[in-house]
Specification:
With about 120 residues, the protein is α+β, with helices and mostly antiparallel strands. The chain has 3 helices and 8 strands; from the N terminus they run E-H-E-E-E-H-E-E-E-H-E. The strands form 2 sheets. Strands 2-3-4-1-5 form a 5-stranded antiparallel sheet, covered by helices on one side. A hairpin with a 5-residue loop joins strand 2 and strand 3. It is elongated and about 50 Å long.
Length: about 120
Amino acid sequence: MEPVLYADPDTEPLIRRLGAAPWSKRFDCGLELRFEVDEERLTILADVDDPEHVRYHLKGWGLSLHPRDPEPDRPWQVWRQDDNGNDFLMMTFATERGAHCIAHLFEARGHKQHYWVVRR
Protein backbone atom coordinates (compact mmCIF):
# COMPACT_ATOMS: atom_id res chain seq x y z
CA MET A 1 0.00 0.00 0.00
CA GLU A 2 1.16 3.49 -0.83
CA PRO A 3 0.25 6.82 0.78
CA VAL A 4 -2.59 8.40 -1.17
CA LEU A 5 -3.91 11.19 1.06
CA TYR A 6 -2.77 13.17 4.05
CA ALA A 7 -5.01 14.89 6.57
CA ASP A 8 -4.23 18.34 7.91
CA PRO A 9 -2.98 18.75 11.49
CA ASP A 10 -6.43 20.15 12.40
CA THR A 11 -7.58 16.53 12.62
CA GLU A 12 -5.95 16.18 16.03
CA PRO A 13 -9.22 15.20 17.82
CA LEU A 14 -9.72 12.35 15.34
CA ILE A 15 -6.11 11.24 15.75
CA ARG A 16 -6.53 11.16 19.53
CA ARG A 17 -9.74 9.14 19.18
CA LEU A 18 -8.17 6.59 16.80
CA GLY A 19 -4.97 6.13 18.75
CA ALA A 20 -1.48 5.56 17.44
CA ALA A 21 -1.91 2.01 16.15
CA PRO A 22 -2.57 1.59 12.40
CA TRP A 23 -6.05 0.42 11.53
CA SER A 24 -7.74 -0.51 8.25
CA LYS A 25 -11.05 -0.59 6.42
CA ARG A 26 -12.31 -2.47 3.36
CA PHE A 27 -15.27 -1.12 1.40
CA ASP A 28 -17.82 -3.17 -0.56
CA CYS A 29 -16.23 -2.14 -3.88
CA GLY A 30 -12.94 -3.77 -2.79
CA LEU A 31 -11.07 -0.58 -1.89
CA GLU A 32 -8.75 -1.23 1.03
CA LEU A 33 -7.43 1.58 3.21
CA ARG A 34 -4.96 1.68 6.05
CA PHE A 35 -4.73 4.64 8.41
CA GLU A 36 -1.47 5.50 10.12
CA VAL A 37 -1.32 8.12 12.84
CA ASP A 38 1.61 10.03 14.30
CA GLU A 39 1.79 13.18 16.40
CA GLU A 40 1.45 15.45 13.38
CA ARG A 41 -0.90 13.91 10.87
CA LEU A 42 -3.06 11.09 9.65
CA THR A 43 -1.73 9.28 6.57
CA ILE A 44 -4.18 7.30 4.47
CA LEU A 45 -2.74 4.43 2.45
CA ALA A 46 -4.69 2.59 -0.23
CA ASP A 47 -4.33 -0.52 -2.34
CA VAL A 48 -4.63 1.72 -5.45
CA ASP A 49 -3.47 5.26 -6.19
CA ASP A 50 -6.90 6.84 -6.74
CA PRO A 51 -7.33 9.80 -4.38
CA GLU A 52 -10.80 10.74 -5.64
CA HIS A 53 -12.12 7.23 -4.97
CA VAL A 54 -10.66 7.32 -1.45
CA ARG A 55 -11.91 10.87 -0.86
CA TYR A 56 -15.46 9.90 -1.87
CA HIS A 57 -15.57 7.08 0.67
CA LEU A 58 -14.22 9.36 3.42
CA LYS A 59 -16.53 12.30 2.82
CA GLY A 60 -18.47 13.09 5.95
CA TRP A 61 -15.51 12.16 8.19
CA GLY A 62 -14.69 15.85 8.66
CA LEU A 63 -11.17 15.47 7.32
CA SER A 64 -9.25 18.07 5.32
CA LEU A 65 -7.55 15.77 2.83
CA HIS A 66 -4.66 16.44 0.46
CA PRO A 67 -3.46 14.00 -2.22
CA ARG A 68 0.13 12.84 -2.28
CA ASP A 69 0.24 13.70 -6.01
CA PRO A 70 -1.86 16.83 -6.67
CA GLU A 71 -2.22 16.10 -10.39
CA PRO A 72 -2.67 12.34 -10.85
CA ASP A 73 -3.73 11.02 -14.25
CA ARG A 74 -7.47 10.33 -14.09
CA PRO A 75 -8.52 8.73 -17.37
CA TRP A 76 -11.72 7.09 -16.04
CA GLN A 77 -14.84 9.25 -16.22
CA VAL A 78 -18.30 8.87 -14.67
CA TRP A 79 -21.05 10.38 -16.82
CA ARG A 80 -24.72 11.01 -16.08
CA GLN A 81 -27.69 11.39 -18.38
CA ASP A 82 -30.52 13.45 -16.90
CA ASP A 83 -34.26 13.14 -17.47
CA ASN A 84 -34.05 15.32 -20.60
CA GLY A 85 -31.33 13.26 -22.28
CA ASN A 86 -28.49 15.66 -21.50
CA ASP A 87 -25.09 14.11 -20.68
CA PHE A 88 -22.86 15.50 -17.91
CA LEU A 89 -19.37 14.59 -16.74
CA MET A 90 -19.70 13.89 -13.01
CA MET A 91 -16.23 12.88 -11.78
CA THR A 92 -12.88 11.52 -12.98
CA PHE A 93 -10.81 8.73 -11.42
CA ALA A 94 -7.38 7.18 -11.70
CA THR A 95 -8.78 3.64 -11.74
CA GLU A 96 -11.62 1.84 -13.45
CA ARG A 97 -12.64 0.32 -10.11
CA GLY A 98 -13.01 3.77 -8.56
CA ALA A 99 -15.18 5.02 -11.41
CA HIS A 100 -17.45 1.96 -11.38
CA CYS A 101 -17.77 2.11 -7.59
CA ILE A 102 -19.04 5.69 -7.68
CA ALA A 103 -21.30 5.06 -10.68
CA HIS A 104 -22.92 2.16 -8.77
CA LEU A 105 -23.33 4.31 -5.65
CA PHE A 106 -25.08 7.00 -7.70
CA GLU A 107 -27.30 4.40 -9.42
CA ALA A 108 -28.27 2.96 -6.03
CA ARG A 109 -29.80 6.28 -5.04
CA GLY A 110 -32.82 5.37 -7.18
CA HIS A 111 -32.98 8.51 -9.32
CA LYS A 112 -34.12 8.27 -12.93
CA GLN A 113 -30.72 9.34 -14.22
CA HIS A 114 -28.43 6.86 -15.92
CA TYR A 115 -24.70 6.66 -15.03
CA TRP A 116 -21.88 5.05 -17.01
CA VAL A 117 -18.09 4.85 -17.07
CA VAL A 118 -15.79 5.62 -20.00
CA ARG A 119 -12.06 5.83 -20.44
CA ARG A 120 -10.92 9.01 -22.16
